[in-house]
Write a structure and sequence with these properties.
The chain is of the alpha/beta class. The protein is 40% helix and 16% strand.
Length: 389
């Protein structure tokens, strides 16, 4: 059986709501009707783990709450769910990042995954005091990951690199197990970093043929390094009992977007240096027309949201069919989200995941055992009652 993993998303980027919460990737974020509180995010986390999601992605950037602090707080209000913590290498020293990862992993009981984000917007990076250009940022990311893995070995590390210098650095807080490293990026520099250093390469929800081509390129690059990777897809979802209901929901979300919003957000996103963002913009074309870019793949989210801009739309069987197409393209992990994130977790978790289970493509990571029938107190046979007429 293909071992598929499904992850959910924690909306710390402006909160959550019944409409698309836009912004991000260098554009100001909207404010959703539901604030990104520990109480609400905890609801999402507990629901996701109950439904069978493996982990939850928490984004990084000036437009959202800090991922490390948020997930550390949420780990105490959930039990099994892992946290895919996004962070930007270079804004924290490699030693401190390795120590933070070890502390998080060991105190949470092995519930940390790492999502490395190089950063595609120079003007946002400069807010953090980072003035490197895009190519140099990717070079620094590769150097950073090489040092992190060396520190996790527990052996002394001395580095005189282009971007980092360490002397006799020995890490005490070795994470157990070592967290898997996730990473995305579509430029040649990004693909090279993925091939050399990461465990799971993530791509946004382009049509299956485009995803298959990207998987092929990264796999070949990794093979030249003597490495093998897993591949994941970051995409939204609108799953319903019927296709009509699903597309009606997509139309409802679209009706909540004004033409002025589209113009403003698209203008901001076009300034992005991210190759992946450029590909997302090409899929929606900046217009509400022709947004079904592949059967059951809708590009409407990307009109006003940076980053992942497409959604799987359809009834549970159709969404499962499209997931199978991505599996054929080489994808084995899916990082999903939907508006609102609490309700859409249940829509997918109670509709699509059981369908994938029936197809032998997925199984709950922590299935709940059915309790044995209750035994009457005392378990003694009841005396036959006499009946008086």
């Amino acid at each position: 059986m293909t071992e598929l993993k499904f992850h959910w998303f924690l909306p710390t980027n402006g909160g959550d709501g019944r409409q698309i919460v836009g912004g991000g990737h260098g554009t100001p974020a909207d404010v959703g009707a539901r604030a990104a509180s520990v109480a609400y995010l905890g609801q999402i986390a507990r629901s996701a783990e109950q439904l069978g999601f493996e982990a939850a992605l928490t984004p990084t950037g000036a437009w959202c709450e800090d991922a490390w602090i948020t997930t550390a707080m949420l780990s105490s209000v959930s039990a099994r769910l892992k946290f895919l913590v996004a962070f930007r290498p270079g804004l924290t020293s490699p030693y401190l990042a390795a120590q933070m990862a070890g502390t998080f992993q060991n105190l949470s009981g092995g519930r940390l995954l790492l999502n490395v984000v190089t950063g595609g917007e120079s003007h946002e990076q400069r807010m953090y005091g980072d003035f490197l250009d895009k190519d140099a940022r990717y070079q620094r990311t590769g150097e950073f990951l090489e040092i992190i893995r060396a520190l996790w070995s527990g052996k002394p590390v001395d580095v005189e690199g282009t971007h980092f210098q360490l002397a006799d650095a020995v890490l005490t807080q070795i994470p157990d197990p070592l967290p898997r490293v996730y990473f995305g990026g579509s430029s040649p520099a990004a693909l090279d970093v993925a091939a050399r250093h990461v465990d799971v390469y993530l791509t946004w929800g382009e049509p299956p043929a485009a995803v298959a081509e990207k998987v092929r390129r990264v796999r070949e690059l990794a093979e030249r390094q003597g490495r093998t990777l897993a591949f994941g897809l970051r995409v939204h979802t609108i799953a319903r009992d019927t296709a009509e209901e699903a597309w009606a929901e997509a139309d409802r979300l679209l009706s909540g977007i004004s033409e002025d919003q589209i113009r403003q957000v698209q203008a901001g996103l076009r300034r992005s240096e991210s190759e992946g963002q450029r590909r997302m913009l090409a899929l929606n074309g900046g217009t509400k027309d022709g947004l079904e870019i592949h059967p059951n793949l809708w590009a409407g989210v990307g009109l006003v949201r940076g980053g992942a801009g497409t959604a799987l739309v359809g009834d549970h069987q159709q969404v499962a069919d499209l997931i199978e197409q991505y599996v054929e393209a080489g994808i084995s992990e899916f990082v999903l989200s939907g508006y609102p994130h609490l309700e859409e977790a249940y829509r997918f978790g109670e509709g699509v995941l059981p369908e994938l289970s029936r197809r032998g493509l997925w199984q709950h990571p922590a299935p709940v055992r059915q309790a044995a029938p209750a035994v009457p107190f005392g378990a003694a046979p009841l005396a036959e009652k006499s009946v008086t007429r």
